[in-house]
Structures are given as C-alpha cells and as structure tokens.
Write a structure and sequence with these properties.
The protein is α+β, with helices and mostly antiparallel strands. It has a single domain (about 10-155), classed as Bacterial Protein-export protein SecB, CATH 3.10.420.10. About 30% of the residues lie in helices and about 40% in strands. The chain has helices spanning about 90-120, 130-145, and strands spanning about 10-25, 40-50, 55-65, 70-85, 155. Strands 1-4-3-2-5 form a five-stranded antiparallel sheet. The longest helix is centred in the middle third of the chain and has 30 residues, at about 90-120. The mean pLDDT is about 90.
Length: about 160
Amino acid sequence: MDEQQPQPTFNIEKIYIKDLSLEIPHAPEVFLTSEQPQVEVQLHNEGGLIGDGLYQVVLTVTLTAKAGDKTLFLVEAAQAGIFQIRNLPEADTEPLLSTACPNILFPYVREVVSDVISRAGFPPVYLAPVNFEAMYMQRLQEAQAQGQAAPKIEIAH
C-alpha cells in the first residue's frame, strides 16, 4: 500500500495589533507650523515558532515625521499574526515567514498607521507598497556575499 505524504497547509489563525504607540512631543506647537514635514519609515519583521506548527510573525512599522529639527510625531505599530504551517520542508518555511506572512500583515498595519496619524490631528500618511520578496532576496545575497548562512526571519529595513 502506498502511503501518501500529508499535504502542506498554511492558514491564518489570528491577526492582531501587538503594540501601538503615538508620540507628539512638541504638541500643541506642531499644529501651528506650516513647514512641510520629512517622513521616515522603518520596517522590521520578526517571528518564530510558538507551538506545534504555529508561528507568530510581527511586522513593525516606525514612522517619524520631522519639520526641521523638531519631531512632529512618531508612530510605532506592531501588527502580528499567528500562522499555521504544517508539512512544509524547513527550507521552505523561512521564505514563507519572511515574505508571505508580512505581505498578509502589511495592509493591516498600513491602515492602523494611517488611522492613528489622522486621529492625532495630522493629514493621513499612506505607506507605499513593500516588496518583501525583493527584501528577502537582498538579505540572502548579502549573507552569501559575506559567506554566512542564510539569514533567519529578522528583517530590519
């Protein structure tokens, strides 16, 4: 009798906001300025195994808006997800956690960031789409160039 290999499975178990903060260090003066702010966006992605076939991935966006040397606002949102991944070779799990999971989480964190900024009294900021596959491939190439093993799921850009 021929035993069949179990089919690989990938399911979203839960999507949630793990952490959210907003700082307006120079309020209310910042609302009186007409200077165009400079906006800096940083992305960080991390995750790992939390149970039998369950992985948590956290995509953190830090957005800082400055006018000159004054910070208008700083928002940090950590959007998390619990994903079930079963019957997948270990070599295929890392790319899935580094690309597919952040792609799923990004629209949620994008909405949270835009919403919190507009609720704080500023014009909304819309985050541009992110190519997590390209970021992952770049990290792989950098690691290979340095003679290191393939990087684990920690992405900081």
